[in-house]
Amino acid sequence: AVGRVCALALANKLTLGLPFARYFLRLVLDEAPADLNELQAEARLEDPMGSSAEASILDTPLVDLALQDCLMMERMTSMQRPAPLAPDPKTIVTDADKSVWLHRKLKHQLVDTIAAQARAFREGLCDVTGASGLSLLSAAELQQLLGGHEIDEERLAQWRAKSSAGGVSEVLVDMFWQWLKESSPAKRAQ
Fold first, then answer.
1. pLDDT tens digits, 102-130
2. What terms describe the molecular function in GO for this protein (predicted)?
3. Phi, psi (5° rounding) for residue 51?
4. 83 has which bridge partners?
5. d(CA 173, CA 146)
6. pTM (global) more than 0.70
7. Which one of 8, 108, 119, 154 is at 20 to 30 Å from 69 when CA atoms are compared?
8. Which pLDDT tens digits describe the chain residue by residue (190 residues)?
9. What angle do CA 181, 9, 42 make, to 5 degrees?
10. C-alpha dihedral over 87, 92, 94, 99, to 10 degrees?
11. Helix crossing, 48-59 with 36-46: angle to 10°?
């Protein structure tokens, strides 16, 4: 249903302003990120701070990060449930297999958990627009079509001037605006 609604909006030249992540749209286009570099690039676009911490795992011995004997071949989902990343999810991650762990973790997070939703979204889009139109677009182009325009510095300043955060710590609000300011215009549009 959501794919159809979005396709109808596109057909009527409307932007939704919805935060569709590029990695989701890559799945919609049947171009899922596959290797570790692609997965890391998508994670970086989604969360620059979090992905840089994960990248440091590859470059630094686990003992130096105080992670030796701490990481297992599983991932905690957003619902705080463990998801196995190997036949024996209690296997301890070592320096020798930490790239395998990171690949499986990112693939689970950015591909496996949303593959069914991406297929359903694609079917809805294709019901309205036809499949041939999608084959002409990149994920970034589809993201722009669905979400509208990037948020530049001027628009960000307008947002801040017209926003209020009643009841929220001023420190948190300042951190939020600082994060937006440091984010790319494309990331802000999400």
1. 999 999 999 999 999 999 999 999 998 88
2. ubiquitin protein ligase activity
3. -70, -30
4. 75
5. 28
6. yes
7. 108
8. 688 888 888 888 777 666 789 999 999 999 999 999 999 999 998 887 777 777 788 999 999 999 999 888 988 887 788 889 999 999 999 999 999 999 999 999 999 999 999 999 999 999 988 888 788 888 988 888 887 666 778 777 877 887 777 777 888 888 888 888 888 776 776 5
9. 40
10. 40
11. 150
Residues 76 and 84: their CA atoms lie apart, in Å, by 9
Residue 16's identity, in one-letter code, is: L
Task: Name residue 188's amino acid.
Answer: R
Q: d(Cα 118, Cα 116) in Å, to the nearest integer? A: 5
Q: Is the dihedral of CA 57, 63, 64, 65 positive or negative?
A: positive
Structure tokens at 155: 């628009």
How many residues appear in the chain? 190
CB–CB of 108/115 below 8 Å? no
Q: Amino acid letter at 39?
A: L
Torsion of CA 154, 177, 184, 149, to 10 degrees: -50
**Can you tell me the distance from the alpha carbon of 50 to that of 24, in angstroms, rounded to the nearest whole number?**
18
Residue tagged 């325009």 (tokens): 149
